[in-house]
Amino acid sequence: MVILAHLYAQPDEPDLISQMDDLANWDNQTIINAVIRLHRPLRHHLESYRAQIASRLGKRIAAIKLLELHKTYLTIGDQHLPLSRKRLRELAKEQSNSAKAKYKSGGNTNNSFRYCSALCGQFRIRPPNWRKLGVMPSLNRLMCNEWWFKKLKKLHDRKFEGFLREIGRVNKHEGIYASNWAVDIHQESKSSNSRFFDDHFIVNEDGEFFELKDVVSKSVSDPRIRKCELMTRISGFEKIAENRGDVPLFVTLTAPGVFHRAYAQGGLNQKFNGSTPREAQAWLMQTWARCRAAYHREGIKPYGFRVVEPHHDGTPHWHLLLFMPKDDALVLTEILRKYWLAEYADEPGAKKHRIVFVDLDPTKGSAAGYMAKYISKNLDGSDIDYDQYGNDAPKAAERIVASCSVWGIRQFQQIGGPPVSVWRELRRLRKPCSYPDLEPAREAADSGDWSGYVRAMGGPLSVRSAMPIRLARKFISPDKTRYRDAYTKQIVGLELGTVIVPTRFHEWTLVRKVASESGSRREAPLDSCQ
């Protein structure tokens, strides 16, 4: 099943649904026809879903379910999904023009912001936080086409993917991890980014320039480099644990069954509560926060990593590799069991499947090696042949990344230990320095020794405020920001007490390659960065 939203325009049909205040006055077929008329490109999917519900719950319930689909997933303001990217850009321009017209019509800035914020309300988009950003920078966002387009695109894609998941198009047997549509738009986005990288380069004040695509390919944006960095950090934590005598704890944490839309063996979950993968992730994070507060009260300080990946139906679950003293591991195990089974404890299989601990056998490999397959499976599928369902690993990884991308779910998260941002800045310093508090950490980072870096920063249990090295930031002039932000900071180096060690020595300008009439390229500056 492939749906390309850019193929469809908005149907010019009367909206009978807006007149359906009292459903008792409308017969089943009229309701069904009204919904299908507004979403003609989805007719096959709507009819199939209606028939499935009608066979189980009756025609009236099926008609009402179709109406609920329309209201929950298939509308953005007064627009009916799916929308093309072109239409989303037109819609974004309409909203930004309305905001500009209100601002230019006079009145004070605060009143203009209140009116413009109301534009967000019709789409249920959260307006800019003026308390954090300031009123004028917030208004500048609301008057920007690109700001509106990004917000509307994110809303559209999550609603439409939610619709496809609701009707059973995301599961092991059809669109595993993500719908085919989500995979298509993710590939389209990657292609668009590649074209942008190909068409731009960066140049500094000395005239040095680099192709943007070459810069990106050498950063952690590249899956191979990202995987290498992740494995370096995990292996470093394992080395620290061995030196300290700590033990590894590997656990898989899953959301309750009501968050899952489909069964792996086939069929829709009839106890599904209608939540999206993003809402399931919120439940996981909230439950983890309770666990974290509980183990902090016990004085337990684990360190390690969390990997988030979707089940076959897109519902996220977690894999955690944590290191700590053996006695703490026993206490933490009980804490995790207590909080993860505190809700929906009577679900069949909850105790067996919701929280699973894995005994790591050192004779069969290291803890980092065990974690490596989850890193690979969620990045590019390299070094493994198949996923757990027997699918080709690289293709499965593509679908996993698409799922996490559309729902905005972070795949990898470090728990405890010093920040990787300082590590990356240290790796910019290629030559030895004269600061005794900095050099051990710099040398470790330069040689890819995460364990040495952790020791130089005070160990895996050190709190951030006690670490000797921090990021140094400075305020950017509002003239150099897109929205004239007054409180934006950028990284300039590393801070050791009162000493600032610069790590960024040039100011770079993003330049677009523009073809001239002779076929050569000339420069068109776009933006500045450091």
Please describe what this structure looks like.
The protein is built from 19 helices and 14 strands. With 530 residues, the chain is an alpha+beta fold. The protein is 46% helix and 15% strand. The chain starts with 27 loop residues before the first helix and ends with a strand. Among the domains are: 85-157, no CATH class; 223-414, no CATH class; 420-508, no CATH class.
Sum this structure up briefly.
Helices cover 46% and strands 15% of the residues.
Strand order of the largest sheet: 8-5-7-6-9
Question: What value does the Rg take, in angstroms?
Answer: 26 Å
By oligomeric state, this entry counts as single chain
Helix content: 40-55%
- Major sheet description: 5 strands, antiparallel
Structural class determined from secondary elements: alpha+beta
Shape verdict: globular
Task: Give the number of helices.
Answer: 19
Mean pLDDT: 90
- Low-pLDDT runs of 5+ residues are 1-14, 516-522
Strand content: 15-25%
Distance between the termini: 44 Å
Q: Tally of extended strands?
A: 14
Which key terms come to mind for this protein?
single chain; 14 strands; alpha+beta; disordered N terminus
Question: Can you lay out the helices and strands and say which pair or pack?
Answer:
Elements: H1 28-38, H2 43-57, H3 59-73, E1 75-76, E2 79-80, H4 85-104, H5 109-121, H6 130-133, H7 135-142, H8 145-166, H9 180-198, E3 200-204, E4 209-211, H10 212-217, H11 223-244, E5 247-254, H12 277-297, E6 303-310, E7 316-324, H13 326-340, H14 350-353, E8 355-358, H15 367-377, H16 393-407, E9 412-415, H17 420-426, H18 439-446, H19 450-456, E10 470-475, E11 489-496, E12 499-502, E13 508-515, E14 521-529
Antiparallel strand pairs: 1-2, 3-4, 3-13, 5-7, 5-8, 6-7, 6-9, 10-11, 11-12, 13-14
Helix pairs in contact: 1-3, 2-3, 4-5, 4-8, 5-7, 9-16, 11-15, 11-19, 12-13, 18-19
